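Q: What would this complex look like in 3D?
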Amino acid sequence: MEPPTLEALARAAEEKLAKSQPLSREERTALLVRLLATQETRRDRKYGLR
Amino acid sequence: MKGDGILVLLPHNPGDVIMALQAVRRVVAAAPGIPVDYVVSSESLGLVQCSPLIRKVFVLPGRELRAAWEAGADAEVRGAIETFLDALNATRYALAANLYQERAGGLIQGCVDADAKIGLEFRDGAHFQVRGRWMEHLFAVPADRSRNPFHVVDIYARAMLAALAPLGASAASGTPGAPDARDAGSVPPRDRSSGRPSDILPPRSRPEAARDLEPGGYLAFHPGSAWPGKRWPEAHWSGLAARCARAGFRIVLTGAAEERGLADRIAASLPADCRAQVENLAGAATLPGTAWVLEHARLVVSGDTVAMHLAAATGTPVLALFGPSNPVETGPYGAGHVIFHAGPGPAADLALDREHPGLAGLGPEAVAGWILEGELPSGHSRWETAWETAWDEREGAQLLVDRRRSPHPYWVRGLELAHAIDRPLDGIRPGPAAAASRPGPRETLHRILAEGADGANGVDRPAGWAPDAGFLARLAAAERELEAETRNDVVWEAYRIAANGLPLRDFARHLSERKARFERARSEEAVLSDRRYAAREG
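A: Here is my prediction, written as C-alpha cells for the whole assembly.
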C-alpha cells in the first residue's frame, strides 16, 4: 500500500488539531512542512491557532 | 541550569529579527556568558549570521521546502525537515524562547528539548498553547494593539528573563544602548565615541556606491515601506529633501531594489539646485551595505521600517514617522530617538494597506523644522504628537516622553500591568468584594469553574471524569458573556489565550487550571483598575 502523501497527513493533522487530539510525529512533521512550504503566515488575531 | 543556553525562534520578518536581537542583548547583559542559538529564515539570515550575540544559527529551509513541495517531491521534503529538526534536537537547552507568533513556530517548539519553554507550543491533547505570562500578553496585544503599553523588545526580554530566573540566571534588566546624550531637537553631532550600544549585528561593509560618502556627513532618508499605510507621502519626502539640501545637508536615499523607482521619483522631483546634494542608493546596496550607510549617517529619517530598526541597532539617531502603528510597541529601541506620531487619531484608523490620513497631514515643514531648527511640530493636526525614546532604569523598560519629559499616557497603565504580570498570584490583592452582592459574568464564570474543578460538594472527581453536556453549555455561555464585556481588554484576552491552550485530556485538571488562570486575570484586572472593575460589577 502506498504511504499517505504529506498533503494527506497534513490534512489529517488539521482535523485532529481541531478536535484537540494528539498528532503522530509524521502528522506533525507534515503539517509543519505545509505551513512552511506554503508560507502560511496567518498571524493569530483571534485564536486562529486552533 | 541543566540545559545549554537559550534557543531563540523568530525567523522573520527582518524588523522583528532585529528586535529579537535587541532582546537577546538585554538577556545576555543579565546573564553574561550564556550562549544563544537562533532559528532564522534564509531571507533574514544576513541579520543573524556572524552576529556577536549568537553562537549557532539554524536556517529554516523555507525556500528548499517550497520548491520540493511544489514539485511534489515528498521524500525530499521529509528529508529536509527531518534534517533540520534533528539538528535542533542535538542540544538540550536551558530555555527555548519561541517569539514567533505563527503555527509553524509552535510545531517547531514542540520538537525542541529544553528545561523551560516560552511562547507558542503544540502539545499532545491540547490546542496550541502559549507558555509564559509575558508571551500570553504578547498574543493578547492584537486585541488592544493601539493601546499596548510595552515595547516588543521589552516583552521579549522580560519573557526570557522571567523564564531564566528559576533556572539560576540573574534577573538584572540590561540597559539598551543609546545614541549620544544630547539635547532633544535638531540634528545631533556626529561624534559618537561613547554611549554606543554594544554590537548586535553582523559586520557591516561599505558598499561601492557609497565610496564617496563622508561618514557622519549626511542624512539618510528611507522613504519606502512594505505597507502603504506606513509610507509618508512621496511629495513630503521631496519637500523635506529640498529643505534639507538648501540648508547644506547631503542626503542619501536608501531602500530595497523594488523601492528604487520611488527613490528615483523623489530625486527627480527636486529643484535643480538641490539635486546635486542627493545621492540615491536605493537598491544599490546589500543588507550589510545598507546597514553601513545607516550606521554612518548623522540622522536617519524613516517610517516604521526595517531601516529604522537597523539604524537604531547601530546606534544612529533616528527620526521616525509613525502613522497607524503604535510607536510604544515597535518604535526605535534605545534612548534618544525622536518619533512623530501622526495617529492613530480620533477615528483610530489602524489600516496598513492604504494611505494613512494622519501621515499625509504631517507636512515636510514640520519634519524639516525639527531637523534644522530643533522645533517640535505642533498644531498641524489635532492628534499629532512628538515623542522621544527614553529608558527607565528602575523598571528596565523603554518609555516615550514628550517635550516636557512627561511620560506617554500608556506608561502608568503599562507599569501597573507589568507589576501584576511579574508578581506571584498570592501577592496580588483580591478583586473588590462589591461584585458578590450582584453577580456579573465574572462571578458566574468563577462559580461554574469552581464547580467543575472541585465538584459541587467539594468531592474529588473520579479518574476519567468528564462533565455533562449541560455543564459544558453553561460554561460556554458564561465565557461568551464575559467575552462580550471584556473584548479588546488585554488582560482578558491573555486569559482566553491561556485557557484555549489548556489540555483537555483530564477535564478535572483542565478546569482546575482554567480556574487558576481566571483568578489570576481577575486579580490583574483589579490591580489595573479597581474603579473600572467595581463599575462593571456593581
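A: To summarize the key features: The mean pLDDT of chain B is 84. The radius of gyration of chain B is 25 Å.
Q: Very helpful, thank you.
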